[in-house]
């Protein structure tokens, strides 16, 4: 029989500052636990193999789509939630299959590979600006001056969002992301997200209309022109929702990959010195950063049929909290899981999810993380924290708001 645990700790400031001792305690109870009555979730899945099973079995374990909104009454009737529900991220088969195939026509390895020169150019431009701001020993905020604008600019290049509009997008993206946090759908957050959604929807609606009149070699044009197996395009609601969610998902998560990664290195001088001495290690370092401090700590599934995970029966109708960050530190999968070790041999993680909903932008995030960190370390031989980095409080989109540095 599965152990019964409380998830109340996930809402405390202590666990939000450092959730990993709580995750370690869960592992001591096995890979799957029942949740005490009264919580929204019936089961928490935190073992690596168990989490991978849930993520890959999309026929049994569904994402929350429009048919399941009754579980969150506060979501109904809000434009922000309608955006999520019309996107490839929050749909199930057969609708998800249709949308994913349309994305696969456009979000191709060739298109991502072709972005590498742009990633390097945009990175170099931001490093030039950092150097100017850091002249004379001045402090600079790595998050606002590099980690936020780099993925925003790369996605802007991919989608065809004008450079002048990309900074405008940041606070609206953060407002939308806030309602996905555990306990984040508060009235104030929902109202802010609803306003942001209306503004972003209008913005992308104008861009999509422009691309219909004047096609370009960008992802907006490609998605406008994409068709399903019957030759039908995305609906206007689907098109705008997917443009918004792709920009949001690829922007904020990569921002925190960069910020979390640099923080880990600055706190580990020997690891940093080794990477400086051998840039060919960068891909291994980025994979370990993603395992050790993944920006997205959890995913949610709903059991559409009776199932069994790691020997634990999960009845149909139950909500399941899948703790990706805990799975990435499962001692049954990773030796010394709480040690940052770029040399580890067990490198496959759940940082980008799994199964039908595996992250569309995984290759792009890796590219940005690898080139961004490598070029940063090559440009500045002396990078130091100018102030304590602070502690993130989020579990969804976990990372620093500010990271003050001196550079030389």
UniProtKB/TrEMBL annotation:
On whether Isomerase is a keyword of this UniProt record, the answer is: no
Q: Which GO terms describe its biological process?
A: antibiotic biosynthetic process
InterPro entries membership? Cyt_P450 (IPR001128), Cyt_P450_B (IPR002397), Cyt_P450_CS (IPR017972), Cyt_P450_sf (IPR036396)
Q: Which UniProt keywords apply?
A: Heme, Iron, Metal-binding, Monooxygenase, Oxidoreductase
Q: Which Gene3D superfamilies has this protein been placed in?
A: Cytochrome P450
The GO terms this record gives for MF are: heme binding; iron ion binding; monooxygenase activity; oxidoreductase activity, acting on paired donors, with incorporation or reduction of molecular oxygen
The portions of this protein that span the membrane are none
Instruction: Give any Pfam family that matches.
Output: p450
Keyword Iron carried by entry: yes
Give the family from UniProt. Answer: Belongs to the cytochrome P450 family.
Q: What is this protein called?
A: Cytochrome P450
The protein's organism comes out as Catellatospora bangladeshensis
